[in-house]
Design a protein that fits this description.
Blueprint: E1 5-8, E2 20-22, E3 30-41, E4 44-52, H1 53-64, E5 66-71, E6 79-81, H2 95-107, E7 113-117, E8 120-122, E9 127-129, E10 136-142, E11 159-163, E12 187-189, E13 213-215, E14 240-241, E15 268-269, H3 275-279
Parallel strand pairs: 12-13, 14-15
Antiparallel strand pairs: 1-4, 2-3, 3-4, 5-10, 5-11, 6-9, 7-8, 7-10
């Protein structure tokens, strides 16, 4: 292999471009996709060429596994939380939450994530030491599809904006506590999120006190069981569109809108068949 190209001698005909090149072994691993050949003479090829499958995956990752963020350090801050540090004392979590927490801890790691600050790759860390008070542009590049992103930005109070449009969420099942106490976030666009497999959205935006708008128009909540405290103390939120929500299988909506002091029930859009349930929600 050279420069992401694979030289092979598999027999090919015209129109074979795009065909998989499979390594002969027990696993029959696909190592590349055929795209052409180098001619020996007019009627004979010297060898064939394929693009390595790893380079194809790298390109997919570059396009679809990215989260872009901007952090604004607080006054006199010496460091900020880029991500939640999953290595903190697990004892603070209730027994019912420990399993989910430990599963998330396996996902948000150096093996799965690269971090770039102002376009420069840095050594993986959950925190970042402040050099000045200017805004910090951070890119998280993921190397695999994640299933559990619970607590990912837990207490990242300097996180001011986040772009999730290039993040592949197809595999996600757990999103609880994801933006817990992200007190500087004013808006979140989650319209590109695939939540078909998500089971837990509890405490997701807990005390996002600056949050004024949120786009959840793409949310499929058919499989969600827990929405408890989802928007707890989102005191700046004045309206919310949940018309895409299916809450048939939701078992817990405890304090879902508690402390949303700027939000009126008439400004919560929800499917007509859930109107009675909305009357029971405390705001």
């Amino acid at each position: 292999m050279k420069d992401n190209k694979i030289i092979h001698d598999a027999s090919t005909d015209k129109g074979s471009s795009g065909s998989p090149i499979i390594r002969r072994s027990k696993d029959n691993y696909i190592i590349g996709l055929h795209y052409g050949g180098i001619k020996k003479n007019k009627n004979e090829y010297k060898y064939n060429l394929a693009t390595s499958f790893d380079s194809i995956l790298d390109n997919i990752i570059e396009q679809n596994y990215i989260i872009n963020c901007i952090y604004i350090p607080k006054k006199d801050s010496k460091e900020i939380n880029l991500l939640h540090d999953y290595n903190q004392d697990i004892k603070e979590w209730k027994k019912a939450r420990k399993k989910s927490y430990l599963e998330a801890k396996k996902e948000i790691t150096e093996e799965n994530i690269e971090i770039y600050v102002n376009d420069k790759k840095i050594k993986f860390d959950y925190k970042y030491k402040i050099k000045d008070s200017k805004e910090i542009k951070v890119k998280f590049k993921f190397k695999k599809l994640l299933a559990n992103i619970s607590y990912m930005f837990y207490r990242c109070s300097s996180l001011e904006s986040i772009d999730l449009s290039s993040f592949n969420s197809n595999n996600i099942k757990y999103m609880s506590f994801m933006f817990y106490e992200c007190s500087s976030l004013e808006s979140i666009d989650l319209s590109s999120f695939n939540t078909n497999n998500v089971k837990d959205m509890s405490w997701m935006f807990y005390e996002c006190k600056s949050l004024k708008s949120i786009d959840l128009s793409s949310f499929n909540t058919t499989n969600v069981k827990d929405m408890s405290c989802m928007f707890y103390e989102c005191s700046s939120l004045k309206s919310i569109d949940l018309s895409s929500f299916n809450i048939t299988n939701v078992e817990d909506m405890w304090f879902m809108f508690y402390g949303c002091s700027s939000l009126l029930k008439e400004n919560i859009k929800i499917k007509n068949k859930y109107d009675k349930l909305l009357e029971e929600i405390d705001i």
